[in-house]
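Data deposition worksheet. Section B asks for the primary sequence of the deposited chain exactly as it was used as input, without tags or linkers unless they were present during the calculation. Section C holds the resulting structure in token form. Section D is free text for depositor observations; keep each observation to a single sentence. Incomplete worksheets are returned to the depositor.
Section A, Depositor: J.P.
Section B:
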Amino acid sequence: MNSDLEISVSLFLHFALLSMMAIGGGVLALTPEMLRFVTETHPWMTPQVFVECFTLAQIAPGPNLLFATLVGMQAAGLTGAVAATTALIVPPSILAMASLHFGAKIRWGGWGATIRRAIMPLPIGMVGATAWSLTTMTVHDWAQGLLFAAALGVMVKTRLNPLWLIAVGAGAGAMGWV
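Section C:
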């Protein structure tokens, strides 16, 4: 069995590499790969626990990357939480500082626009993959599918605060409907 330190190092290395791909979509776009890594590659938690960590972090105030802290905590305790959080903050911060430093010195001209156009589809695809992954993991029967479709329709057509939809879903779950 791996020690908490070994798990933390593994989490740090993998999440640090992933964090460098969080262009535009933020850390949420990395969710499917994080899920695969901590539930399939290394069964440090179940998919259900991962979804619970993700959900708790999304409804809590603060940055979206908090779910990685909870995932790290579940996998390796406090050292895992620190490793996962540091991995998602430090490498992109260094990249951002370097790009600001060198970007101010180099005139990108047409290259800057070309690079921006080239990477624009990346966050869209990554966020779509996250949505698909989380949906297929949580919708298992027709009642859940119907509730999901209704919530999606409300989100697309109105400006209703998502917390109301979470409350409706919680109520439906508490009553045993889903």
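Section D:
The two ends are 37 Å apart (CA to CA).
The helical segments are 4-19, 31-41, 47-59, 66-105, 110-119, 121-138, 142-157, 162-174.
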